[in-house]
């Protein structure tokens, strides 16, 4: 990270897992399934700052309830945090900094979303202890980030999609991302182009297409005619060669999401010609350190990046918005306003102002759960 001033560690007294059930304002359907609620897993770090004052830090684990987007899922994340990640973090003493999440956990494989939640919680506590905002720590170059919106496959088909997109455009979102799958792709996206003209439009297939199925390829070729900003993750996460095989035929840049777990993946994908844009989600890649490393690797290669989302509450979104405020994140992010997801966010809400979200200015991530929202939440104490 860019910060020049090193952060003092925090003396951890407790790590808690807090689960909160949050109903979405509307179902969110992708090629991998339909979600109506999010069971949000929060990591809360409690500890002492250098001057012995109490500090608390928060991180959101972005796992879905089931292993549908990647191998990770919420119950698995809770177990690996409890039995492996937190014990490894505290093994060599209770004085902990965010860099230890990379160091002391290096021998453990995978579980990047769980790891990221722990990293952000530790960093949040450290930053609060010195009264410094995360965006400053990351070297933010803007105080607001351009916001896009990711629109699920609606129960009501194309008509419902047109209505939802009209609403989001009226609210001021700067670009629209539509979820597609075989059978719901060319027709609805053509209808959107017809209805809304030259709006910034892109699609996300969440790996639903088969690179050897002629009907799937015909649909992707037809989407390529629609002037999209990008085509996100048409093929499987491990299918870099499939992306490299088909991408050169398309004018539309391919953006990879599920395929990119670290900076080396990004370098490989770019070198192979598998993508021309990278979606960076700090959960998917194991935290902010790796997210920034991917950004740097993409910048060296002249590949644009943008900040993706996983239907976060205000806790996760606060970290995303700080990341999206840094150099290189010039494309609109999947960081929408709180009311796109929740009737009531867990934190003070994020609002859309002139198509942008304001970067939090408070210490740490700049957001914390409202006490009422946590009152009935389940808490599992991991240590201390
Ligand atoms: O592929 O970008 C994705 C949500 C859950 C899982 C995967 C994805 C998404 C989104 C939502 O597109 C983005 C958001 O948080 O608004
Ligand atoms: Mg995606």
Explain this structure to me?
With 384 residues, the chain is an alpha/beta fold. It folds into 2 domains: 10-131 and 371-383, 2-Layer Sandwich (Enolase-like, domain 1), CATH 3.30.390; 136-358, TIM Barrel (Alpha-Beta Barrel), CATH 3.20.20.120. Helices cover 33% and strands 22% of the residues. The chain contains 12 helices and 14 strands. The chain has helices at 74-90, 99-103, 112-129, 134-138, 157-171, 186-196, 214-223, 240-246, 263-272, 288-300, 314-324, 371-374; strands at 10-30, 33-48, 54-61, 95-96, 144-146, 148-151, 175-179, 201-204, 231-232, 254-256, 277-280, 305-307, 356-358, 378-383. The strands form 3 sheets. A 7-stranded parallel sheet has the order 6-7-8-9-10-11-12. α1 packs across α3. The longest helix is centred in the first third of the chain and has 18 residues, at 112-129. The two termini are 30 Å apart. Residues 204, 206, 232-233, 257, 279, 308 line the site of magnesium ion. Residues 69, 150, 204, 206, 257, 308-311, 334, 336 line the site of 2-succinylbenzoate.
**Order of the strands making up the biggest sheet:** 6-7-8-9-10-11-12
Q: Helix count? A: 12
Q: What form results from the Cα inertia axes?
A: globular
Provide the CATH architecture of the largest domain. Answer: Alpha-Beta Barrel
In terms of DSSP E residues, the strand content is 15-25%
The CATH topology of the largest domain comes to: TIM Barrel
How much helix, percentage-wise, in residues? 25-40%
* Content-based structural category: alpha/beta
Count of all domains: 2
State Rg. Answer: 20 Å
Report, as a whole number of angstroms, the end-to-end distance: 30 Å
């Amino acid at each position: 990270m860019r910060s020049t001033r090193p952060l003092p560690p925090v003396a951890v007294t407790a790590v808690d897992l807090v689960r909160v059930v949050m109903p979405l304002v509307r179902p969110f359907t992708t090629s991998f399934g339909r979600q109506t609620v999010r069971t949000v897993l929060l990591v809360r770090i409690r500890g002492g700052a250098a001057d012995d004052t109490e500090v608390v830090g928060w991180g959101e684990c972005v796992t879905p309830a089931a292993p549908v987007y990647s191998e990770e899922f919420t119950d698995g994340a809770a177990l690996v945090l409890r039995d492996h990640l937190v014990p490894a973090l505290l093994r060599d003493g209770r004085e902990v900094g965010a860099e230890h999440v990379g160091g002391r956990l290096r021998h453990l494989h995978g579980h990047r979303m769980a790891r990221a939640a722990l990293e952000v919680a530790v960093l949040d506590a450290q930053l609060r202890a010195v009264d410094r905002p995360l965006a400053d720590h990351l070297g933010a170059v803007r105080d607001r980030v351009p916001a896009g919106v990711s629109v699920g496959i609606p129960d009501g088909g194309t008509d419902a999609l047109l209505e939802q997109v009209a609403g989001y455009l009226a609210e001021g979102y700067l670009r629209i991302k539509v979820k597609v799958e075989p059978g719901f792709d060319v027709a609805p996206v053509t209808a959107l182009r017809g209805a809304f003209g030259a709006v910034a439009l892109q699609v996300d297939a969440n790996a639903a297409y088969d690179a050897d199925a002629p009907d799937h390829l015909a649909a992707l070729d037809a989407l390529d005619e629609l002037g999209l900003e990008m085509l996100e993750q048409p093929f499987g996460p491990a299918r870099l060669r499939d992306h490299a095989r088909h991408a050169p035929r398309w004018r539309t840049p391919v953006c990879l999401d599920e395929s990119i777990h670290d900076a080396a993946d990004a370098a490989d994908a770019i070198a192979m010609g598998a993508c021309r844009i990278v979606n960076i989600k700090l959960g998917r890649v194991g935290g902010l350190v790796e997210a920034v490393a991917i950004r740097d690797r993409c910048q060296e290669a002249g590949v644009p990046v943008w900040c993706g989302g996983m239907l976060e509450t205000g806790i996760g979104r606060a970290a995303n918005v700080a990341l999206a405020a840094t150099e290189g994140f010039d494309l609109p992010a999947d960081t929408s306003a709180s009311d796109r997801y929740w009737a009531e966010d867990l934190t003070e809400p994020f609002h859309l102002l002139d198509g942008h979200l304001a970067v939090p200015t408070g210490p740490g991530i700049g957001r914390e759960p409202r006490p009422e929202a946590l009152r009935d939440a389940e808490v599992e104490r991991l240590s201390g």
